[in-house]
Amino acid sequence: MRKESIHKLNNVSSRTGRFVLYWMQASQRAIDNDALDYACEISNDLSLPLLVLFVLHVGYPSANSRSFTFMLEGLEETEKRLKERGITFLSKVGNPVDEVLKIAKNASVLVSDVGYLRHQLFWRDSIARRVESPFFVVESNVILPVGQVSKKEEFSAATIRPKIKRLLIDTPKSPAIESCFSKVLDIENFETVSLSTFLKDLKFGDDAPAVSSFKGGTAQAIEILESFLRDKIDIFCRERNDPNSDVLSNMSPYLHFGQISPSYIAKKVIEKRSPCEEAYLEELIIRRELSMNFTMYNPNYDRFEGLPVWAKKTLNEHRGDMREYIYSKEQFENCSTHDPYWNAAQMEMAFTGKMHGYMRMYWGKKILEWSESPEVALETALYLNDKYELDGRDPNGYAGVMWCLGKHDRAWAERKVTGKVRYMSSAGLRRKFDADGYVRKISRLAQST
């Protein structure tokens, strides 16, 4: 890990306790996890057992059966792998702040991983103000610490790219910790929750059902990555924008839940020495970490106010333009637009839990064009993305939806409704790939599901 990834959030210097506590939330894996490694290092130094806590928060924004099923599949594997390493895993149901503070009363040191959304920042800040143990957090889901790359919000990939590339060359990493201090820890008094039982009892109101397309877990992520590196990466840069070509790595759901490390993926891609290495790492590192920069430094990352000045100006100037079509959130959700390509994209997301990246751009652009206002478009796109996408509720998701309204982009030729925001058309899809073939493909998939 990089020392710049480790941050102390309070002024507590030391405390006597029964164990070292690692509050696992954003990095849901037992291997290649810098936060876990750092907790192990402290455990070894203090000769205290390590307790890993995960808090199941059913009130998590936009949580549903789909996201929870995928997450719990991964957590069951993580629990097993931790036990094999002699590390105790405890799962609790409730509010993360309350549950962490309860368990931390007996901890000598508290360690956690890092998420960059406002509720994750609020959790950490709330705990840091009240916990009586030293509290460290480790940025374990990025290649480079967000604050080390830049101290401000970056305008675009062009401005953040040279900063990232310089640091990738100049900043060394410390070796991973191989083992933790091993001692059996009695957790009977903590009333741990059975993950499998919790999964069976899950019930949500506004729900999206679990999907068979993706199974959660680090082992599954590694298997999919190996298949991609073996069979697809060499044509990735040529065919990645064709949704009829199955050449994507499909790592985003696993990265979202922290079931695989971006550093591990980058290492494996570099070892492959593919001609498409640079194209893939551009998405994995530059674009992904630009989205972390965005949510870290822009509190309005999911609101109209978070757009750049030029985008807000042009969209405001075209608020009164006549829309050829206006659809409600329900019509969008039910795939009830006039456009078969848009309907197919929404259907792909609803049935599989993941929409092809190129179609997601078109999907978001058309929601902007067919909504009564930019604010309504943003609300609709975020609702659908967060409900159906396994990689929704994520910095990448927020940056991607906001890109459709001009974020991290520049002004283009002016049009009605969308102003100078980049435009995409159905004719453009047909020029790019067999768009009608995509519709047929998704129709067959929906019929077989």
Automatic annotation (TrEMBL):
Keyword DNA repair listed? The answer is yes
Query: Which cofactors does it use?
Result: FAD
- Supply the alphabetized keyword list: DNA damage, DNA repair, DNA-binding, FAD, Flavoprotein, Lyase
Highest taxon of the lineage:
Bacteria
Q: Which Pfam families match?
A: DNA_photolyase
The record's Gene Ontology biological-process terms are:
photoreactive repair
Instruction: Name the reaction it catalyses.
Output: cyclobutadipyrimidine (in DNA) = 2 pyrimidine residues (in DNA)
> Does the keyword Ligase feature in the UniProt annotation?
no
> What Gene Ontology molecular function terms does this protein carry?
deoxyribodipyrimidine photo-lyase activity; DNA binding
Q: Where is the Photolyase/cryptochrome alpha/beta domain?
A: 18-146
EC numbers, comma separated: 4.1.99.3
Q: Which family does it belong to?
A: Belongs to the DNA photolyase class-2 family.
The identity of this protein, by name, is: Deoxyribodipyrimidine photo-lyase
Q: What is the lineage of its organism?
A: Bacteria, Thermotogati, Thermotogota, Thermotogae, Kosmotogales
